[in-house]
Every structure is written in structure tokens, then in C-alpha cells.
Amino acid sequence: MEFSELIRTDRAQAELRRGPEAAPLRGTLCVTGHHLLLSPGPQSTPDLWLLLLRSVDSIEKRVAGDSGTITLRCKDLRVLQLDIEGAEATLDIARSVEGLRLGDAWHFHPPERYYKRVARETNAWRLSEVNEDFSLCPSYPRAVIVPRAVDDDALSRSARFRQGGRFPVLSYHHAPSGTVLLRASQPLSGPQKRRCVEDEELLRAVLAGARPGARGIIVDTRSSHAAKQARMTGGGTEAKAVYPGWKRLHRPLERGRPLQESFVCLVEACGDKEQSMDRWLSRLQGCRWLAHVKEALSTACLAAQGMEREGACILVHGAEGMDSTLLVTSLAQLILDPLSRTMTGFQELVEREWIQAGHPFQLRCAHSAFSHARPKHEAPTFLLFLDCVWQLGRQFPLSLEFGEGLLLALFEHAYASPFGTFLCNSEKERCLCEVRTRTHSLWSGLNQPKEQRKLWNPLYVLNPLAIWPSVEPQSLRLWQGLFLRWTRPPEPAEEAWEKVWQIVTESQKTEGSQPTVSA
Amino acid sequence: MEHIRTPKVENVRLVDRVSSKKAALGTLYLTATHVIFVENAPDTRKETWILHSQISTIEKQATTATGCPLLIRCKNFQIIQFIIPQERDCHDVYISLIRLARPVKYEELYCFSFNPKLDKEEREQGWMLIDLSEEYKRMGLPNNYWQLSDVNRDYRVCDSYPTELYVPKSATAHIIVGSSKFRSRRRFPALSYYYKDNHASICRSSQPLSGFSARCLEDEQMLQAIRKANPGSDFIYVVDTRPKLNAMANRAAGKGYENEDNYSNIKFQFIGIENIHVMRNSLQKMLEVCELKSPSMSDFLWGLENSGWLRHIKAIMDAGIFIAKAISEEGASVLVHCSDGWDRTAQVCSVASLLLDPHYRTLKGFMVLVEKDWISFGHKFNHRYGNLDGDPKEISPVIDQFIECVWQLMEQFPCAFEFSERFLIHIQHHIYSCQFGNFLCNSQKERQELKIQERTYSLWAHLWKNRADYLNPLFRADHSQMQGTLHLPTAPCNFMYKFWSGMYNRFEKGMQPRQSVTDYLMAVKEETQQLEEELEALEERLEKIQKVQLNHTKVKSKQSEPSKQSGFSTSDNSTANTPQDYSGNMKSFPSRSPSQGDEDSALILTQDNLKSSDPDLSANSDQESGVEDLSCRSPSGGECAPSEDSGKDRDSDEAVFLTA
């Protein structure tokens, strides 16, 4: 979304000259977050001309009277010239391209970037660099968003009271209700029910910073029994008495080995061609994958509902706060926040709520479903997230800007990728490994013009509202595109997708075409 | 009318099925054809209409402090619960409905009073829309091997068959009559589908009266004639769609199946599709699962499996696939039968035809298919769907299963069908509604005696008139799969069969996808077409102007681009929904009804435009009982999904043309 801020004007009439040989191309010039497009008038070739902005090496503009010229020199040594109607338009387009071509995907700094958005909406939060050297919390990024009223000292004390140092930080600010979504790990209250005044202060400040009289809900992703048991090993939950205004709900979500086993069992069932119809349904039931989907979505809905309908602030944590916690916070945002449902917004969400938030991809995705190795840290939490997103997309087919193809790509890259994006377990490790300088970013890889049709949803129409899914079993389906990807013939689904694109692009072409005076 | 004990009860509550805490207060009316509930809420006065013929069961439940609950389950899977303050009123309504829902004479059925305000000529034309003799011509008949037989003129041989039948040329009247005497209900082998490409055919009959050892020379000659009518193959398949055990049990009653030793060159094959009683119970069990309140995933999947429903659907599909393969790959003709040859045989023949012939995957072709394999060949609609009060053991969802098979195929081949899911849902609805005469009675003969065509209207004409509502935007007529047989994977892909919530939970709007891809794409297509027309018109005018050589002509075209966004924003906003009860039993959050249905218009909307004056239908848009925010929509549906409207009402760019 931030890219769009760099776009001064998104269209103008222009003529493209690609060199002495090629005929000039006239039409409407459009600037998008990553591309420059020229859609020609009806009388010429129907093809769109497309240029990836990142391939622009330098840009030169010249204005004369009522028109202007932009010269683009590309990294592949091409030189292109655009003659644009309108001096103002020329300057705007040149400035937009200038800003956008530099948009390096590695310069996604989600906490900082997201903070800019939060800062526009409220003054109650600040960006803290208390974790600059990763000493406070090795799995957090350098910068985190925290209540303005809490200083870095208090943060570091709170961090010591939370497992792995994951003190409560802002995950999402829901501007319409003025409430926030926070995530953390479990408090280390232990058998003695220890307290931490700064941690209590932090949560009090959260409520104070929200609308007056706001309540808080702690969504614990463990059963209350499991949470009590965690005390024996030094963990625990927030005691009601010392966190006034906050109440606790337990919504047990499966994690770790059981989740991995569920995944393995489902993949096995999908590959087994010998079974009868009845055995298929009982195996689908037995592997419990869809039950996990249902639970994850319900819990995310609960959190989202708490914010949007109840006006409550929500803190989500389980034990370590790196798995089911992220599942809940990221899904809740997708339900509430229209921006996170756009292509860039979703990529940022994954970057911010999974990669930067310290989901240990190396450990969780070391093996997939076919490995014979005994699972240690493997768990398909991220896949479960993608499946839930797919379910949302199925129930709201016009509301996500990206298609199934993006989810499939993310699944693939999370498990094995030529890009560095999903490498390592945390920001700290990525810094040590110099991932940024030594690898390429998946996001810029995905934004290549190839295969765009698979990644984007042609049906997307901005839906400014929350999308509340149905979590009834009748409404949830097995994600065939993923789990049966290699067992069912792909053609029918591909043909359908192509047809959808065809219908939509035909309509856009028609809309774009205008009769022109040829005399 | 004499059956209505009380025409009106006030202060009745219509319970929201999803959230029992919410109920709409209103007045309940009983009419000769409908149960009508009108909400009191002054701004909406939302109406819910239920046709008597749709009522499947009525249950009076124990009186509570708030009143006496009355639960109505409908054949189109709608479930409605009223709470009537006075026990006595409830009893009166209950007794009235018991009678009204079970008419004893055909004349009581809705189609005899339904009047869509068409003149006589239009009605007659409606009945002529689907013409089976045309269909046989399309198949390439008659030809050197097949001829039209008049042996069943005046239903002399078989009263449940049509009068016009195709039989092999070499089958003489003597052979046919002889064969018919050796078949249950005299349903002798006759042609269902002829596959032009290789002369193979699908024939259908009832079981032979073979008992343990009986033979019939004419029947054997009949099968031989079928084999000879296909020069490309030296054998025919005889497919008995029953489980072997059932077929063997029939032998004790003097019926049974063909003995391979007695018939020359047949290959005999059992395909175990269960009987109507098993299917009835299976559906019952599945509907119980659908009715569960917030079931867990395990409850649901376990219940679904336990119902066996998808297993039965797969059995029917497997039989259809077997036959389609025998025809298209082996080039062998197939004779299909079950017991009487009007239930499983109809299912299997029509599934096989649908797989083989792209024509049946078009709107009109599908109507023809139903007309041919179901209506003309004497599927007992009246008994199976309980149109008149009768033996409950005769009721069974036979055609529902066929319709679901089609849907399962549509899910697997999204571009292969010209029609959408809505088309199937509306057909299912009308099989039970008795609003049109097509599905009345048990046979062609009965329909003729009742003069159905003179006294009622045809559903096909109605659907055809509104065909725009039923088109599948993804349909590719040029499609490779359209050229011929739909190829299903050979491996037993059980996972292909899915629960059809669009049918069995279709009145639970909150469970359905909240945005319709079909409606959106249809709107986009329509808009594209309009723009293209406008563009053409503009270009024409431009040309004229240029010819006139007006020097100062300036063409300004309004930016039409944003129309898409604005055009659809309305439909999009309507997807606004409210959260469901995600909190389980937690009291902290008020549970809310599942939101907003989309426009959708399940049924109903289209059927309304039939009659604007007659309230009955217009209302049907009702149904969405349980959906609150519908009030904004005019119940007179007609226009169908608003998304399409919005496609229409975007500013016309008519005036974009300015000349200076």
C-alpha cells in the first residue's frame, strides 16, 4: 500500500518510442506499484506493454509547452522514450517512477513502516529500539511498537518476565474502534505466581491508550489446564487480580508435533488411491486437519470480534508466542483490515507477523509431510495459516487481491526457496547470516511480471468491511489445490482460472478503449 | 379452503435457526397454497412464503413458557420454526397443514391454480420447447439400424413407457411384445441414447422375469437385435445396477437377471447401487447432520460418512462412468436395468449421457435429458417426491441424487457446463413445488389423461425465459472437453466427492460463500457487452461525422474506467456481514446471526417475475428467513442479483458525445 503513496498520478495519455525499428505505441500509460503499463488504443495491437519499474536504471524528464518527454534507461540497456500529454502529468509520472523504481523489496522494514501507519492513526504508541542488538529478545526484530507511556527500562523488565523475552508488543491497531491487537509469550509466573509490576504497567498503559473505559481480553491459545500446568515449569498466565481490566479466555489450538502428525496423516490420506469412499471421510476426520482450520479461524474471529464489536483490546499468547499466537494475530488482521487483503498488504503482513515476528521457519519447515525423520521442531503452522486464508478467499472470492497461486507459492518457498526471505528463525539470525546482502528477496521475485496471472485475483474489488467467515463444518473445505495438487488433473481448474482472467481483461480492455479521431 | 381451520394467527414468532435468541414477531396466514408469515416490523414487513407442496414434515413440539413451537421441514431443505402463543392455535395450524401438505387429488396441486398470465398460445409454445423427436433426430435417428416403433401406441404394451420409442430395426413387433412379457412391468429394452460416432447405444429396460431358470426366446432375440444394431462390436454389456445380493433375492420372486449362458455374446455386470429405501434413509441421516447446531468438525465428518450419502453418489457416478467408457472406448452397446428400470436405470443412463454428449451439458440439452430419461420413461415423480398423499415408503430422493451427480461434475469441470449451480437448485425446487405440470404423475400416460399440457404450464419454458440467470460465465463452448466425453480419472478419486452445502444448507445463508463469483462475472460480461455496443455506436457516429468533415469536432469520452469500481461497490457493500457466534458458550459476546446473505436469491427470485400480481411467489424471496439485512432488497426479486443490476444501471455513456 505504501507504494501507492508514491504514485502521484496513475495515468496519462502517452506515446512510447522503443527505438528506431519498433513502431511507436500510443495509448493510456498507467503507473502501478511495480510496473509501468501502456494499454494501446483499440486500433492497434491489443497487447499491453509492461515494464518492471525496478529494471529502470535512470530517468530523465523534459517539459515543453503542453507536453513532456520522459526517457527511461533500463538495466538491460534498453532506452525508452515516452511522450506524454500534459506538462503536469509528465512531471508527476516522472516523480512516481523515480520513487518507485528505488523501492527495493529488502527495504521492507515492516515494524518501522507499519509504525508510520499507526502513528497517523493514534498517538498512544511509539517505536522502540530497545531491542536494537537483539539482546532483550532474540526472536524480535530490532524495532517494536509499544505504548508511548512505557519506557525502555520497563520494557526490558517486562521482557525478563516473558518467555524468550517476548514482551507484549503491538500487532495491529484497529483505527475504527480505537482498539489494538497485541502479542507476547507467556508470563513466567511459575509455581510461586510471581509478578512483574512493569509488565502489569504495560498492559494497563495499553488500556489507557485505547478509548476510555476500554477493557482487555487475553486470548490464551492453550487450554486452561495446560496453562496451569505450565506454571510447574516456570510459565503460566496473567493473574486476574493483578491485571485489572483484563480477562482471560482459553482457546486451545493445536501446535507442535500433533499438528505435524495431522499434516502427515492428511497428505497420506490424499495420496492413498485404494481406499473406499467411506474410509476417505473417516480418514479426513481422523487426521483432524480441518478441525484445526476451524479452531484457528474461530479463535481469530473471536479476537477480531472482541476488537470490532466489543471495543476491547486483545492480547494473544500461548507458551512461546511464536506459533499459534501468530496464526491468530495475522488471521484477525486479515479479517478486519482491508489493506492486509491487498497484494502488497498481504506480503507485508506475512513479513511483519511471521518472518519479523520470529516464527522459526528453519525449525518448523525443516521437513514436510513425507520425511521419515522423527519430527522434532517441525510443525505446519504457517501452512495452517495459508489454509485459513484460502478458506477466507473461498468464502469471500472478491475480497482478496491475491489468488490461490500466491498461497501455493508461499507454501513452496517456506519449505524450500531460492530466495532468502524465509531463511533462518529470526531477525537476529538473518542479520548474522547477512541474508539481506547475500540473497534475493522472495517479494521482488514474486513481483516479476511472469506468472502474475496465477498470483493475482482478477475478481478483486476493494471491500472496506470486515469479512466474517463462517466456521461451520459445512462451510470449510479441504484445500484441494494444495493437498490434491499432484493427484488431481490440473487442467479443469487452470482452464477455469484462465477463463476468469479472460472475462475480466476483456472487460477492462473495453473500458479502456475509446474511439479516436484518426484524421 | 375447507381444510384451513384458522386462516390467521397473530403474535407468532419465527425463530432464527442459527441464533435461537433472535426471533421475528409477526402474523401467520394459511392460504390454499401457501403458509405466509409477515413480520410486524413496520419498515420491512418481510414476508416468508412456504408452498404447501414443499412441506415434508410438521412437528408440534412440547409447549414452553413462550408458546407452542411448530417445526416445518421442507423438501427443498428449508427448516422453519414458528412459536405460536396459544396451544390451541398451534394445534389448528398443525392439523390444517397436515392436511394441506398432503393433497389427495391432483387438482389440489398448485400448478392447477398457478397462473403466470400467459395466453393460451404462449402456454402451448412453452410445452413445445422441449421436443424429444427432435432430440432423437439430433442423435442421428432413425437410421439403418434403429427405427421409431409404434408398438406402444396407446400404451398397449407398457403403460409406463412413452408411445414413441426407438428400437433396433431387426426387432419385430413380435419380438418386442414377447420380450415385454418377460420383463417386470413389461418394460422391454428400448433406446435411451445413441452414440453417433461409433453406433454404440445405451438401452434400458426392467429386470427379466428369469427366476431360477426361465428363458424367453424373444427377449434373447431382442438383446441380439441390440447387439446387431452396432456393427462395431460383437458383444453387448448388460449392466444390472443393483447389488448382486438384491438381484439374486429377486430370483426367488420369479424375477432376477440375465443368465450369460442363455444370451449370446453378452457380458453381464453388477454395479451395486442401493435401493430407494436405503437412499431415503441415507438422506435422512445426512439431513440430521446438517441440522446439528454448531457441530464439531468430527461430528460433521463422522455423520456425513455414517449417512453413506457420498458413497451412494459415487456408486451412481461409477456406474455412469462405466457405461460411458464402454460406449466411447470399447464401442460396445450397453443394456441397463435395475428392478423396474425407472429409478437407478434413469440415474445411470442420464449420467452416462451427460458424460458422453456435450449437448446435455448445455441449458437446453439438460432439459432434454431430464425430459427423456426421467419424464418420458416413466420415473414415478408422484410417488418418489410425495406430491400426493401416498405410501411414505415410495418416497426417495432419486432425482436429487442425479442432480447432485451433475453438481459434482460441475465442481470438477468448471468450464464444461453451460448452466450454473442455481439452475440445478431451481429444478430441484420445482420437482417438489408442483408449480409446473412437468413433473406431475407417474407416467406419460397419466399426464395425458390429466391433460397436463392444457391445464398447467411448463417449467422448461419458464427456465428458458430466464436463462440469463442460469448461465455459467466460465462455460467454454469451444472447450476441448466440450468436444466429447468428459474424462474422469480412472483411479477411485474419493476426494472428488464433496458435501453440497449450496443445496442441503442453502437456506443457511451464513454458511454459503458471501460473494458470488458467478454473479460477478456475469455482471462483468454484461457490462463488457454494453460497452462494446456503445463503443461500436460511437465509432459509427464518429465515422459519419468524419465523413461530413466537420472541422471543429471534438470527441470527448467520459472516463469509463471507474464504472467498475463504482458499479459493483453496491453489491460489495452488501456483503457486509456480522460475526457469527465464535465464542462457543461464552456469554460475553452476544451471539449474532450469521449475517447477511448476499444477494444471491437462491431460488425464488426468478420465479417471482412470473407473477407480479400474485403475491405468492414474489414473496418467496422470503426464505432468507434468518437473514436480517435483506430488507433493503425488494422482495420482488425478478431482477436477480443486485450485482447484475448495478451492472446495468451504471451511467449510460450515451451523452458522452459532445460536438462543439
Note the main attributes of this structure.
heterodimer; A: 519 residues; alpha+beta; seven-stranded antiparallel beta sheet; five-stranded mixed beta sheet; 14 strands; 41% helix; 16% strand; B: 660 residues; 23 helices; 12% strand; Myotubularin-like_Pase_dom (chain B)
Structure notes:
The complex is a heterodimer of chains A (519) and B (660). By secondary structure, chain A is an alpha+beta fold. Helices cover 41% and strands 16% of the residues of chain A. Chain A is built from 20 helices and 14 strands. In chain A, the strands form three sheets. A seven-stranded antiparallel β-sheet of chain A has the order 4-3-2-1-7-6-5, covered by helices on one side. A five-stranded mixed β-sheet of chain A has the order 10-11-14-12-13, sandwiched between helices. Chain A has a two-stranded antiparallel sheet with strand order 8-9. In chain A, helix 6 links the parallel strand 12 and strand 13. Chain B has helices at residues 87-100, 120-128, 132-139, 173-181, 217-228, 244-251, 276-291, 297-307, 309-330, 344-356, 363-376, 381-384, 398-412, 421-433, 444-449, 452-455, 459-465, 501-504, 517-548, 563-573, 605-608, 615-620, 642-648; strands at residues 8-15, 23-30, 34-39, 47-51, 55-60, 68-74, 79-84, 146-149, 165-168, 190-195, 200-205, 236-240, 266-270, 333-337. Chain B is α+β, with helices and mostly antiparallel strands and 660 residues long. Chain B is built from 23 helices and 14 strands. Chain B is 38% helix and 12% strand. A seven-stranded antiparallel β-sheet of chain B has the order 4-3-2-1-7-6-5.
